[in-house]
Amino acid sequence: MTVCPDCDLLLEAQMPHPGEKLVCPRCGCTLLAPVENSVEKTMVLSLTGLILFPPAIFLPLLTLDILGLESSGSIFTSAKAMVASGFVFTGIAVFFTSMVIPFIKLLLLFLVSMQISLGKANGATTLMFKAYKKMDEWGMLEVYMIGILVTIIKLLHMAKIEYDVGFFCFIGLMGATILSSSFLDENLYWESIFSQASASKTACQKAADKGEKAVHPA
Ligand SMILES: [Zn+2]
């Protein structure tokens, strides 16, 4: 049995095959959407994101040439400049939503996927996956991307714009982040974490019982 998270309809769910999805007949909410090789795809994409993260954040994104005056900046220097110009709250918000949280999200997703693929998910994996879900609405790389696009469109006629390495790394990072969360089969992740964690608990219990018997051979 499963419950629709949107309209609370109780349904007797049948597991759909990869590529198919189970939709609530009453409100149209997607209940289950299995993805083929979800764990492997999510793990590779989150690792790609982690590799692209430092150059995307610390290397210059764009170089603007206005009447011979060149200026360039990275996401990190722009957040620093905001704080230095007195926009302390905005600077800190940019720092957290476009650097700290997206990085922690990718790291958690990679660690959870790796533990599941190794068959070693445990209580800590549950906490990490819960933290990942909690942080979901706080990562705002996409908003930063819109800001960059608006800048490019606004300055297209006024300045010569050169795209730097950081820009392409940032596009790659965005792609890896979006794809990693779209390939994430949440149901499969929870099922795998639960079954692997229960199996390791049972194994620990059995080992403890054996140890006790060895100490008291009654
Ligand atoms: Zn529904």
Question: Main traits of this protein?
Answer:
about 220 residues; mainly alpha; Butyryl-CoA Dehydrogenase, subunit A, domain 3; 2 domains; three-stranded antiparallel beta sheet; two-stranded antiparallel ribbon; about 65% helix; binds zinc ion
Describe the model.
- With 218 residues, the chain is mainly alpha-helical.
- It folds into two domains: 1-31, no CATH class; 38-183, Butyryl-CoA Dehydrogenase, subunit A, domain 3 (Up-down Bundle).
- It has seven helices and seven strands.
- It has helices spanning 38-58, 75-84, 88-117, 123-135, 141-155, 165-182, 186-215, and strands spanning 2-3, 10-11, 22-23, 30-32, 62-66, 69-73, 160-163.
- The strands form three sheets. Strands 6-5-7 form a three-stranded antiparallel sheet.
- Helix 1 (38-58) packs antiparallel against helix 3 (88-117) and helix 2 (75-84) packs antiparallel against helix 3 (88-117).
- The mean pLDDT is 87.
- Zinc ion is lined by residues 4, 6-7, 9, 24, 26-27, 29.
Bound molecules: zinc ion
Q: Which class of the largest domain in CATH terms? A: Mainly Alpha
What about the largest sheet? 3 strands, antiparallel
Tertiary shape: elongated
Oligomer: single chain
Sheet/helix structural class: mainly alpha
Order of helix and strand elements from N to C terminus = EEEEHEEHHHHEHH
CATH fold call of the largest domain: Butyryl-CoA Dehydrogenase, subunit A, domain 3
Mean pLDDT across all amino acids = 87
Number of domains: 2
Helix run count = 7
Strand order, sheet with most strands? 6-5-7
Percent in helix: 55-70%
Distance between the termini: 45 Å
Whole-number radius of gyration?
23 Å
Query: Judging by the overall fold, what is the CATH architecture of the largest domain?
Result: Up-down Bundle
Strand content: 5-15%
Q: What ranges have pLDDT less than 50 throughout 5 or more consecutive residues?
A: none
Count of DSSP strands: 7
